[in-house]
User: Fold these one by one.
Assistant:
Number 1:
Amino acid sequence: MTRLRVAVLVSGRGSNLQALLDAAQQPGYPAEIVRVISNVADVPALQRAERAGVPAEVLSHRDFADREAFERALTDRLEKYETELVCQAGFMRILTPYFVERWHNRLVNIHPSLLPAFPGLNTHARALEAGVKLHGCSVHFVRAAVDDGPIIGQAAVPVLAEDTPERLAARVLAAEHRLYPYCLRLLAEKRVQVQGERALVDAPAGEQAMIISPPPQTPVNSE
Ligand code: GRF
């Protein structure tokens, strides 16, 4: 089996990277992580790569005159490792149209909200403020606008009355760790096609129970 060659871009904690590394170690998983690149030195994500035996390096944006110069150096590296797909996992750089177009439909991100709701930062506090009853995470192709692009998959979690941003973040993060490896599998199995600005996913049919939040204790209608 030829596996999809994936590079992961990180900036910090790396828990989503860990989920991808763990998945890639499972027999039969159709993608391999060939490289981890961090724009910040000494972050836990780099140690996670090392522990998994995956080569990792630091490419600091501070060493370049502007955003595009950094992205050209990043692209050179990604090409050198024959990268087929780039996964952003907590990569805290806004990318220019140059990079986004260069990796068009080969660059994906995970964002901690049910897009298009709550793009940007502090998504959990904003979800609580808005009073939404479902929140979650999205894996999407990257476009030039921040947290925009065809959505590959989403996972929803309930928002509970007693939630703080931290509690809600932890619940969403657990969903992220399941969603990202699943979406990467779908991509590696070539089951995702972009048509217009929508991702069409050829996933096995199967009716899923609906998610209602707050959960009703008795049936909602009289059937
Ligand atoms: C995650 O919540 C991810 O959705 C967002 O940044 C956070 C990164 O966490 N893009 P980690 O570095 O993967 O632990």
Number 2:
Amino acid sequence: MPRTPFLAGNWKMYKTGAEAVSFIESARPLLAGATGRQAAVAVPFTALAETAKAAAGSGILVGAQNIHWEKEGAYTGEISAGMAKAAGASFVILGHSERRQFFGDTDEWVSKKLQAAISESLIPVVCLGESLSQRESGDTFKVLGAQIKGSLAGLSEAQAASLIIAYEPVWAIGTGKTATAAQAQEVHAFLRGELKTLLGAKTSDSTRILYGGSVKPDNVKSLMAEPDIDGALVGGAALKPDSFAQIVKFDF
Ligand code: PGA
């Protein structure tokens, strides 16, 4: 089954609604004709509605960067999957390493958020990644194996139909230090194998595995040439319409 490349910007805590609308207006003509791929931006909650409205008909998918797993309740400062969906989100990033590092997201929380996202038909982008010390001590596969198992706990094969995984080595995020295409491919192949064990061959074949960590217009093509790299999750280089468009059009 072909895996349509998914090229997503993760804006983190950048851009007001007005700034997001201006980005979309600039990106729209740059992306005209970019077929055979899915462009996407994960925006701050406060910009979701405006961005989704501005992006209508552009082919750019708009998503959120986090959700809470409950539908509603006394959870000050949190947003549910249904709320993100109603504001215009089509997808959601779950378990980004910054959430894990600064806000306490655990594999168990990610698995609960994953259930919430799927119940609202939000496409889940589940992030995994090892730290530099874990890589240096030779624990990369052990760490990632535990993360994927824990984050996808309770997920059925049917629920996994829209699942997207993002491999983001923590040491490559925002550091300018990209994993080499070969390093990323090695991990992607490992994760595809884990998906097979956990959810079967069909899910393993059809699930897109994105790479994230200092993806730029000048390295995206070599990453995308690897057989198990199906897209990118891009922070810094996705904040400007021109570099975002260059990344989306990696093979043009
Ligand atoms: P970066 O961030 O592209 O700025 O390294 C990637 C991410 O955190 O998703």
